[in-house]
Design a protein that fits this description.
Number of strands: 0
Structural class: mainly alpha
Order of helices and strands: HHHHHHHHHHHHHHH
Number of helices: 15
Shape: globular
Largest sheet: none
Radius of gyration: 21 Å
Oligomer: single chain
Distance between the termini: 11 Å
Helix content: over 70%
Number of domains: 1
Length: 288
Amino acid sequence: MDLVEEYLKIAKKDLKATKILYENKLYPQSLFYFAQSVEKANKALALGLNEYTEEDMRKVNHDATRIYKDNIIELKQKYEDLSRNLNRLPELKNTDFVKNLGVEDTIKECNGALKQHAEIQKAKTDLAFISPREIREILIKISKTEKEMEEGIENVKNFKLTENNLKETKEELFRQLENPKNNNFAYLLKKELSENKFTIQELEILIKQMWLKILHYITISTALFYLAVITLPYSVSTRYPKGDLYPTKIYNRRLPIVKKLPDLISLQSKTLIRLNKYCTEYIFNQKQ
């Protein structure tokens, strides 16, 4: 986990450099370091899930959206495999359990997300000229997700497992554990449930831990994904001239992304605090 910690430290220092450079009106340099902070935070989160290696992060290079693309491709493949297997078992395909998995809908969602990613890549140079309205819409989406997750977190914290709802909760839990979307989070819990006998109180704690981990992850990854999209051009366009585009001329106080950078810095600062807490609770402590 040393690499995760190091990426986190660099992300924080890059954000600190962003603020100093912005205050000194060094806007191209400020945007460059902001993009670096977002990139390192995304890599820290990805490495913390134990699905990626240092070599994988080198391949990602300066485009953290590739991490999300890889996740979507993997999820799509799982559901396509599931769909093929279900086609061989039509009697199972019509059960409520399978219908609740939403196999075909998820495949469509994955295709839509991959198409969106391709469009983002195609238009990444234009992202340097992202409008105030587009930035505002992204911030609203992030805020909406944040509020939804906060409500979910409160519901989880208030959840009480009793003898009356134990059977129903266990059935729902195992349905969730079988869902390919939750493989990353549910594996350890599933292992513990199969190897140990728990009291109601112990099982309640385990269920809460799983759902809190998922909800915190969604909050952090949503912010980091959108920030990765916004910052796509800045690892290169803020440092090197290309054609008629000169960093010293483009990145001035009139450019919307420069105007809105303090808001984005604030969002990244909050996200790094959450990421640090997430890593401490669910990654670093698990390794001790």
